[in-house]
Amino acid sequence: MNLFKMIKAMFTSAPRAEPLDCAARLRSGAAVLVDVREPAEWAEGVAQNAVLLPLSDLTGGRLQWTPFLSDHRERELFVYCRSGGRSAIAARILAAEGFRAANTGSLTDWSAAAWPVVPPAKSRR
Length: 125
Fold this sequence. Notes:
Blueprint: H1 3-10, H2 19-28, E1 31-35, H3 39-42, E2 46-47, E3 51-52, H4 55-58, H5 65-71, E4 76-81, H6 85-96, E5 101-106, H7 107-112, E6 117-118
Parallel strand pairs: 1-3, 1-4, 4-5
Antiparallel strand pairs: 2-6
């Protein structure tokens, strides 16, 4: 990611959405849930049906993010991480690029909203 795009993202706002408020849009297919933690962190569990795309790829070479974004341009993107910090960065980057993205906080927030947490093999990559 070039410096200009990173600076633009820093000054772009992205909404914060609560997992309970997102669940219906995820179930209807209007939105996609994305885990932006790094692969080593996924072993502790992931939100069911989350797509696993690390923040490092979004800010780096985008080998995984480019095809994903191309396929999901019309859908809302709900991102989460371990504590909500990286998902806030990802949501801002995506919003700066014209995507409808929201930071949904952490995996703990999803678990507290009764969204199943499953082993990464049962999620999507």
